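Please decode residue identities from the backbone states below.
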């Protein structure tokens, strides 16, 4: 994955396919559906290996999945919002396997 810098909001090129340009402002953390930025998390320890390419807007690492892995951000357009008796819920389309 590489980042292409153009005037205006940042655009991320997923899988180096020029037809798959996504505005980084359309990406969210899959764990908490919060906004992300295309910068590594602040204070990522060298012993943890290569740092992730994305972080929360406050510089923290994206929410780990149930296996403790740091996921890639997802497109907010794939989220579904719903109200239940317990409150609001957020989930992704069934084909992705992610939910929050």
């Amino acid at each position: 994955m590489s980042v292409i810098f153009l005037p205006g909001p940042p655009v991320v090129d997923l899988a180096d396919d020029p037809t798959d340009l996504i505005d980084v402002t359309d990406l969210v953390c899959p764990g908490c559906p919060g906004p992300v930025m295309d910068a590594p998390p602040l204070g990522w320890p060298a012993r943890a290996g290569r740092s992730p390419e994305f972080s929360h807007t406050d510089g923290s690492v994206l929410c780990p999945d149930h296996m403790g892995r740091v996921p890639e951000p997802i497109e907010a357009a794939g989220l579904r919002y719903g109200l239940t008796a317990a409150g609001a819920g957020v989930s992704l389309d069934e084909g992705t396997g992610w939910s929050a």
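Observation: The radius of gyration is 14 Å.
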